[in-house]
Amino acid sequence: PQVLSWIIQIFLSEILQVPVSIDTGGEGGPQGSVSFYDPDNNFLYASSSYYYPGLEKANSVGDCRDVDLTTDSCFHYHPEVWPGQTAEVYQAVQEGYIEQPYLSGIVGSYDFYIPSYTVERDTTLSSYFGLQGEQHRRKLAETFLAPTTWGDYCKDVSSNNCTTDDDIAKRAPENQAEEAKYHDGENYDGHFRNTTQNDCDTNPKCTGHIIDTPCSWSTYTVQQLFQNNILLSSDGPEGNNRGYSYSAIVEIVRAAFATESDVMIVWYFPDPLLDQFDLIPVTFPRSTTLCEENRGTVAEKCSSNITIQRGNKEGSCGYIGTPLKKLFASEFGRKTEREPEASRSPAYKTLQDFKLSGMEMSEIFREWTLIDPEGDNREAVCTWVATNLNQLLRIVPPGYPRIVDPLLNDSDNLQYGAIGVASFIGVVVLITIALTNHWKEETPIKTAQINFLNLILLGYFFLSVGSILRGLDDTVGICIAEEWLEVLGFMLAFVPLLVKARAITVIDREARQYRRVTTTQETLYRIVAGIIGLTIIYLIVWSVVDTPTIVKTYALADERTVKSDISCGKAHALIFSSIRTGIEALIIVVTLVYAVEGRKVRQEFNESQTLAFLAYSHFIWGLLRNVAINVSFDASTQKFNAIISFIISGDTIFGLLIYFFPKFLNVLTKEPDNKRPVNFRKEKEKNLFRTWIRR
User: Fold this and answer.
1) What confidence tier does 633 reach under pLDDT thresholds 50, 70, 90?
2) At what angle do helices 521-545 and 450-470 cross, to 10 degrees?
3) Which residues contact 410 (CB under 8 A, 6 or more apart)?
């Protein structure tokens, strides 16, 4: 499966731009790195050949990125399943976490193999006829000896514990990993030795040694040997059948050929080992349907009861080539179908159609053997993919690979325009602040209360900065800042006007009734501060409860071209947007009411007409903003934000023109005090009115 996984990883990653990770499976998370792109090629073998919980996990979570892969295995696709897993696959299908299996394209087969030089020494060993029966017990015991690990060799065989080079081991192993090796290319050739299992003189039940696979593989070694009366047995460290791991078997074969020792292994085609070494299959009785039906299940083969492992006579035939299958987590296909067509991954359909024959696998293995049989095999895989790319491209689904064309490109000019206009408005606001404070002793400014004017201008400045941010591409920070600046900007621009208008209207109403009213600027400031404080609390709640996330959306422009868009996603956008719109509308309406009610206030303090125009202006621009937000039109987020930026900029500049420009005009066109006739009656009334507001 390693080579298959690499081909798939290369093809999906580099041709179809689908990220692929490879999970070796196993309890406690992935057992090692097998990525083609691992710079060190740190390949570690899986502890389990078929780890169904990894498929079950992928089916339950959908996206393996949501799984802590340091503790859990998770994968959507298993590229190669042998017939011995039929019962387990059927059970997984019944439980619903995998689909019905698909054919992989490979016809695989197991066999018993011995080196060609072993056949040359004794041709009878190449057939089960030369292996069967008591008469061949001693021959098998003396021919097929037990492989010895590096650690055991130095401890039990070497006369000096490998302290000096003895042509088999150059040195002693330096760690536990080396101790467990059966062959090390540079320092340990390997060794096969007699054990009590092989000694027929002292052990009447002696047997030769066979290198069996783990019991979860699609092999039936114990059943075949016992039922055919072949006196061989495995004595490895893996499972109840005493098999050997994949890596151990590879090392044992290399040790056998390095020392020209006789060995018998159970192995499969296609695999590079058969291309790297001249191994000859041993013939067994011909496979039949009856025999295949009587093979042991994985549970039986892995049983601790040797009688169950041995099965029955009917299942003792040799192997036959069988189509291999591939497995998909059920959620893989369902999730793919649920995805919008524009963002749908081609991986599922591509993997369904992907097939590789055993001969094609052998081509890769032969190339690997020519390049570096014991080293990095990635060059052979990469060469095969490059050579057969046209063949692989035939299985690419129509419309793939997608060409992603970001929508933001068609709105760049609009964005730049929005930023430019907003920046200009920001400069105008700053100039207005400077002029207002410069003329703060002038009557039009003084009567409007300089502190209130500064609060209003601060609000307009926030709005202009928010407009600038609207012209930028969305990020989480920008999304939050936009909301804060726009909401605070509106409240600062309008609440001081509302509070002041209410105070003047109430004072005027009570004065006409000859009732005394006492208020202070501090009281008005506290009211403004209280409302702004509530606004800040609302914004904090919004930021925590409905924190924006960056959402990527895609739309098909044609069969292959995808328009991509990036926007701020808000889970409760409708709720908070409705609250914001409602509060803003309420403030505008209340301001308008006070503006109408305050028409009879003395002219020096009367801003009713200005407030009315200001309320109308904000209402119109707010209406435009809400129409833009709620009416669906075909535009990118960047274009939409630019439009909102223009609307906010328009609202801001109109507010400045309506409220501040007339005051500046009065300052510039007023007559000097020494040239104006004094109306003592008006001055008396004015001073009387001022007494109602105690500084």
Assistant:
1) low
2) 20
3) 636, 639
